[in-house]
């Protein structure tokens, strides 16, 4: 069953339960492969509460149904949150960005070459955690799913310490976007055909005036592919702590705590910092087998964070 709502009130008034959908660029391919089979699709793309980008003195508020193109081209986001604009611009292809939404990019499915396959291919394998089974085919002795979370915009939202506005069990709440992403990624390692919460808006604090930030994505075929790795980085010249975040290397984005502290201390050369950051990513990442990407290539890509640091400094 397919239902399109006009406001969040419709969800409670009609007692709707099912899987939320807006652009559908992530969910529909999964349904075609038989990986998701929701009884009810609740289209939230027309809900007024999820639309629009609003800029105030203290924050930029972005509706979850805002498209990636709208976010990438919005003048306030481009000027104030450059890493976010860059991450949206680098996601997928133009056609997908014109349809895909900010909320969908954050709440996307984690991916694995043993899961994202046709039904006939998967019939030759035991059911993994994401398919309702009790094993991770990638890492046989792992107690949890090791599929990777490939969102580009999530890395930037974590960098800017955004807050997520969520509708859960009929009540609206706010929580750090990083916490919502971690919760989503953990739940996404298990099978479910219903959404537990609806992301309504993202509230991003205005960064300090002196802050510099940027985003970098590396993939085999530019923006068309999922990232091999992505990074977001900020330096604030003492206005607030520096931060470096790595994405597409684990089941959720990784905040590089040690490397972030070293950015503020300024005790290392750029080359030394790059080595420290790459080592921290390697230690925290969950290296698995990925399509057409040898592990050695994946590991070497971690050092590209040094190129992002140079770009931020030159900005």
TrEMBL record:
PANTHER family to which the protein is assigned, alphabetical: XANTHINE DEHYDROGENASE SUBUNIT C-RELATED
Family matches, as Gene3D superfamilies: 3.30.465.10, CO dehydrogenase flavoprotein, C-terminal domain, Uridine Diphospho-n-acetylenolpyruvylglucosamine Reductase, domain 2
Protein species of origin: Synergistes jonesii
Residue ranges constituting the FAD-binding PCMH-type domain according to the UniProt record: 1-209
Entry protein name: FAD-binding PCMH-type domain-containing protein
Keywords: FAD, Flavoprotein, Oxidoreductase
InterPro entries the UniProt entry points to: CO_DH_flav_C_dom_sf, Diverse_Substr_Oxidored, FAD-bd_PCMH, FAD-bd_PCMH-like_sf, FAD-bd_PCMH_sub1, FAD-bd_PCMH_sub2, Mopterin_DH_FAD-bd
Pfam families: FAD_binding_5
Gene Ontology terms for molecular function: FAD binding; oxidoreductase activity
